[in-house]
Amino acid sequence: MRPNKKIQGLQFFLLALFLLWQGTVAWATDPQAAMQETVENVLEVLTDPALAGEAHWQERRERVSQEVAKRFNFTKMAQSALARAWHDRSAAEQEKFVTLFKELLKDAYVDRLKTYSDGNYKVVFDKVLVRGTRAVVSSLVIQQEQKISAAYKMYQEGDDWFVYDVVVEGVSLVSNYRSQFGNIIQKDGYEELVRRLEKKIAEPRNSENPNEELS
What we know:
The chain is α+β, with helices and mostly antiparallel strands. It has helices at residues 5-28, 31-46, 57-71, 74-82, 91-110, 173-188, 190-202, and strands spanning 122-131, 134-143, 146-157, 160-168, 171-172. The longest helix has 24 residues, at 5-28.
């Protein structure tokens, strides 16, 4: 008995659709590849011979910041760091806070990459955990005998993945700032927090201690 051609055609169509769907899901749910792309772009900037030397550091810094901004959702990170106090702020205050928070992270963490500009290091992605639209991508930064663990907490939006927190050596960036911000707001108010952020951003940078507290 010959199989019905219509059934054969339907089966072929469903198989093709399934394979296409599988391929799409595999591509869309690959947070590690997304993070690797960002890290590779950052390292390419840091090791670019045309941007080498102290004279070009500000240009390298800005280029790195642009690459990081493509992958990191600073608005979501700022909202999480401010916690319940976020909802008490006006739209204008929220926008200003996101700008300050972004500058704080740029000063604290992007400048820290200056120590990697000689290219004498490597980044190894060792594992990824995906649960629905959330993922944790773990990596190691290896420089000489030193190893630093960094895990990127990511969420899926459409066909891409974005970072909403970074955990370095077991310390969550967002949680660290949430604790500091909460203490300042509780003791001295939100306006004092903004003042300290503005002061911190205006100070000379200390790339050796990106987690130092706001004074």
